């Protein structure tokens, strides 16, 4: 097992997360799903999805650039760490953002907020002409 360092390559937002959906009024299935729900995976997926959604929503560009994000708890589980990036299709420009939030009781609302802030930051860093000539 040789993990790729996040400094070398970030996964796509939500990559590796298994998600299950069901009707909101199906109490039996919801009860079963609560038993297999993993809080850390839910937090990671929420942050990464908020980052991706924010980049897509605020993007002034004609095309969609490569977007990656990775949220995880620190080794001591005292804070959450987020790394995100947006790149040109050929990888000539890669813009990275990092953020963190202290606390081991991190919730979905906080995760959503962190992903949105990081998305806003990277779009602002890229500027309007980031993808000029690519699409």
Give a quick set of tags describing it.
single chain, 135 residues, alpha+beta, three-stranded antiparallel beta sheet, 3 helices
Characterization of this structure:
Helix 2 (about 40-60) runs parallel beside helix 3 (about 110-125). The protein has helices at about 25-35, 40-60, 110-125, and strands at about 65-75, 80-85, 95-100. By secondary structure, the chain is an alpha+beta fold. It has a 3-stranded antiparallel sheet. About 35% of the residues lie in helices and about 20% in strands. It contains 3 helices and 3 strands.
How would you sum up this structure in a few lines?
This protein has helices spanning 27-36, 39-58, 108-126; strands at 67-73, 79-87, 94-102. The protein is α+β, with helices and mostly antiparallel strands.
Overall, the morphology is globular
SS-derived structural category: alpha+beta
The portion of residues assigned to helices is 25-40%
Q: What's the alpha carbon Rg, rounded to whole Å?
A: 16 Å
Q: Strand order within the widest sheet?
A: 1-2-3
What percentage of the residues does DSSP assign to strands (E)? 15-25%
Number of distinct beta strands: 3
Low-pLDDT windows of residues: none
Strand/helix succession: HHEEEH
Largest sheet: 3 strands, antiparallel
Q: Termini distance?
A: 38 Å
Number of helices: 3
């Amino acid at each position: 097992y040789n993990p790729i360092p996040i400094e070398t390559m970030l996964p796509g937002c939500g990559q590796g997360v298994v998600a299950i959906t069901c009707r909101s009024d199906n109490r039996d299935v919801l009860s079963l799903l609560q038993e297999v729900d993993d809080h850390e995976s839910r937090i990671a997926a929420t942050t990464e999805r908020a980052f991706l959604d924010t980049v897509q929503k605020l993007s002034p560009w004609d095309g969609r650039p490569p977007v990656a994000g990775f949220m995880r708890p620190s080794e001591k589980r005292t804070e959450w760490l987020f790394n995100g990036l947006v790149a040109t299709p050929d990888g000539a420009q890669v813009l990275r953002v990092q953020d963190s939030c202290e606390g081991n009781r991190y919730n979905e609302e906080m995760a959503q907020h962190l992903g949105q802030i990081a998305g806003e930051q990277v779009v602002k860093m890229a500027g309007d002409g980031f993808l000029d000539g690519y699409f």
